[in-house]
Write a structure and sequence with these properties.
Helix content is about 60%, strand content about 5%. With about 675 residues, it is mainly alpha-helical. The chain folds into three domains: about 10-230, 3-Layer(aba) Sandwich (Rossmann fold), CATH 3.40.50; about 250-440, no CATH class; about 475-680, no CATH class. The strands form two sheets. The chain has a six-stranded mixed β-sheet, with helices on both faces. A hairpin with a 2-residue loop joins β2 (about 60-65) and β3 (about 70-75). The longest helix has about 40 residues, at about 250-290. The radius of gyration is 31 Å and the shape is elongated. Bound molecules: guanosine-5'-triphosphate and magnesium ion. Guanosine-5'-triphosphate (GTP) binds near residues 34, 35 and 329.
């Protein structure tokens, strides 16, 4: 490695000599080598990691204490070489060379090498080392290397590369202290002569041909690594042949998702009952403390019922994210991406859309921001437009409510309905992408170039923290947006108050008859029958009150519009209210059916809903209605946050409005078709 002539002095270099500048260490390495995991281990932060190349797409800064000094540590996207191709590679390169506007140039490097992929990693190493920055090599994943039967001669490698090499296991923190010590040593040895800016050196890199670099990497590996065990490699290749098969791979993906949902259903019921119990108890306590009246109703029927109706789905959300995080860590998702890329490209979506599409299953907002990695503007627009069709976690409470109505005691059928809903979202996204590509945003999509990472044991700790983060986000939303909307909805459902004169004569007569019947039964000693009749009377009154309220009037106004989907006016109100945020439909229905069905006091929401009847006595939630409701919520765009982000990232409100419009029309049409079709088929 040649030393270049000293650079011309600039004011910046003068400053360097007089005052020691704050050290900045950048983490450089191949994609998926474990940079972010090491970054988290060194800084104590919790940046997103996954067993998938391309997880990090932006620079991220953390603080690190080294020898009593606070040092900046920058995590970067992965690089295969210093000739950057994609936008996230460019970001990493700029960060490394000190060209990123918001970040200072690194004064030292941690070059992370994946020890199970040393030869390929050394290609980048040969270029990075020529930049001449003080460098410590972290030889990561030595645990995996050991399992693969690889033995790496660390001292030999250090001699070949001309810098310290520290074996580490970033995931468990093994070797991280030694790495710190080595960093302290390297930093203490500040170069006396200001070195040439890395950017200038990078420009001189191409003197060595690629071939020479590959040859060098091969030679170094030949000298420093001893016998890889072929058998284990053979096994994971055999697994990959199955999992990336065009047909079997898709089936395996579906089966896996079915398994995940089945687990969610079977594991969540106990904590869900517990939460239900807690909110029931809270309601009872509040009802005991506060005298009956509007305030009691606000707190018990409005706030506690509204928030409780949503929070009950917390266990399902936690379990889902826990399982997905585990899955992400195994390396399976890269196989799924490979299988899906073929499908996606056929409809014109770029392979790079897979990761945003996957993360849209948590929330469309970060997913839309993650579309930055898609370089072609039209491809990016198409991806943004269809992303919210993926099932985000806000839809989960709605799915869970409907499947609970449909299949209360059959978890397998419930899981199948869930898988169906998820698949419908994906299918709709693919179809809409196809339509957009054929009409307003034509163009050819580029294939995904993706290496398949090696399989790894997932980390329970990582999964736990992912679950914690998602759970907290969900609870925060329940405690703020959902609570506020619950209060508004309660008020709309209770005011204006009904005066005796407002009750229609027919209903008044019915109520009077029921009350008389109750009194007669009471005197005859049939207490149970009497209570039933009294409940019916109370039901009639509260239903009247609801119909009389603002919400009731609004509901009746829009009822003709939702009728084709099989919805009654309460559901119509739920749908309308949930255009701000989808989960609101659950709290709306908790409030509406909770108020309207006094007799079912204390029963869980789904039980109350299952028993709900129309004025003619027929059940509200028949099979066609449930499926229509499910289809509507799979396809509808009901999230202000997403609309705002889509407008920003797509570069204009017209795109966000197009998205809102097409999704609403799609949801309405598909739900109507579902309801009418199932009714026609005679499903009850
Ligand atoms: N077995 C093992 N797994 C590790 C180790 N370090 C990281 N991993 C796993 O490797 C995967 C990739 O880790 P990340 O930290 O996301 O990798 P990255 O280099 O930041 O990846 P990009 O951001 O995509 O460039 C994750 O599943 C980690 O849990 C290690 O030392 N041993
Ligand atoms: Mg990363």
């Amino acid at each position: 490695m040649t030393l270049a002539p000293a650079p011309p002095d600039t004011p910046a270099h003068e400053a360097t000599r007089t005052a020691p500048r704050r050290q900045t260490i950048a983490l450089v390495g191949n994609p998926n080598a474990g940079k972010t995991t090491l970054f988290n281990a060194l800084t104590g932060l919790r940046a997103k990691t996954a067993n998938f190349p391309g997880t990090t797409i932006e620079l991220r800064v953390g603080a690190l204490r080294l020898a009593g000094e606070s040092v900046r540590l920058i995590d970067m996207p992965g690089l295969y070489s210093l000739s950057a191709a994609s936008s996230e590679e460019r970001a990493a390169l700029d960060g490394l060379l000190g060209l990123a506007p918001e970040h200072p140039a690194p004064t030292a490097l941690i070059l992370l090498l994946d020890s199970t992929n040393l030869e390929r990693n050394l290609f980048l190493a040969s270029q990075v080392l020529e930049l001449g920055l003080p460098t410590v090599i972290a030889l990561n994943m030595v645990d995996l290397a050991q399992r693969l039967g690889l033995r790496i001669k660390v001292a030999e490698l250090s001699r070949e590369l001309g810098c310290p090499v520290v074996p580490v296991v970033a995931k468990t923190g093994r070797g991280v202290d030694e790495l710190r010590a080595e960093l302290e040593r390297v930093i203490a040895r500040r170069p006396d002569v200001p070195h040439q800016p890395a950017a200038e050196r990078a420009r001189q890199l191409d003197t060595q041909s690629q071939h020479q670099r590959y040859d060098w990497a091969e030679r170094v590996v030949g000298r420093c690594v001893v016998h890889p065990d072929r058998q284990i490699h053979g096994r994971s290749e055999a697994i990959d042949r199955v999992l990336t098969h065009p047909v079997v791979g898709v089936v395996a993906f579906l089966a896996l998702m079915l398994g995940v949902f089945y687990l969610i259903f079977s594991l969540a019921s106990i904590p869900m009952d517990l939460i239900d119990g807690v909110f029931g108890w809270l309601g009872d306590v509040a009802a005991g403390l506060i005298p009956a009246g509007p305030l009691q109703s606000l707190i018990v029927d409005g706030m506690i019922a509204g928030v409780g109706g949503v929070v009950i789905f917390l266990p399902q959300i936690c379990i889902l994210f826990f399982l997905i995080a585990l899955l992400e860590d195994t390396g399976y998702l890269a196989r799924a991406a490979f299988v899906m890329d073929r499908l996606m490209r056929r409809v014109g979506l770029p392979g790079k859309a897979f990761v945003p599409m996957l993360s849209a299953h948590a929330c469309a907002v970060p997913a839309i921001m993650a579309t930055k990695v898609i370089d072609d503007r039209r491809d990016r627009l198409v991806t943004i437009l269809v992303l919210p069709l993926m099932t985000c976690s806000a839809r989960l409470p709605v799915y869970a409510m409907v499947t609970g109505l449909l299949f209360p005691t059959q978890p397998l059928l419930g899981a199948a309905a869930f898988t169906g809903a998820y698949s419908l979202g994906i299918l709709a996204a693919i179809s809409m992408a196809l339509i957009f590509k054929r009409t307003i945003l034509p163009g050819q999509a580029r294939p995904l170039v993706l290496e398949l990472p090696s399989y790894k044991m997932p980390s329970l700790k990582t999964a736990f923290f992912v679950m914690l983060d998602r759970g907290i986000i969900f609870l925060k939303k329940a405690g703020t947006v959902i609570l506020a909307l619950s209060i508004v909805l309660w008020w709309l459902a209770n005011f204006p108050e009904m005066q005796p004169g407002d009750v229609p004569a027919g209903t008044a007569a019915q109520v009077a008859a029921l009350e008389a019947q109750a009194a007669a039964l009471e005197t005859a000693g049939q207490a149970e029958q009497a209570a039933l009749a009294a409940d019916q009377a109370a039901d009639l009154i509260s239903q009247q009150q609801l119909a009389h309220s603002f919400l009731g009037r609004l509901g009746h106004l829009i009822e003709p519009a939702v009728l084709p989907m099989g919805f009654d006016w309460q559901l119509g109100v739920g749908v309308l209210a949930s255009f701000a945020a989808r989960e609101v439909v659950v709290s709306t229905l908790s409030i509406l059916y909770g108020l309207g069905e006094e007799g079912a006091e204390g029963a869980a929401l789904v039980d109350q809903m299952r028993a709900a009847t129309r004025p003619d006595g027929s059940l509200v939630f028949t099979l066609p209605v449930c499926f229509s409701l499910l289809v509507f919520y799979v396809l509808a765009m009901q999230c202000f946050a997403t609309t705002a982000i889509a407008a920003r990232e797509a570069g204009g409100w017209r795109w966000a409005l197009l998205q809102l419009g097409y999704m609403t029309v799609l949801a309405y049409g598909a739900a109507t078709l579902t309801y009418q079709g199932l009714t026609w088929l005679g499903a009850a």
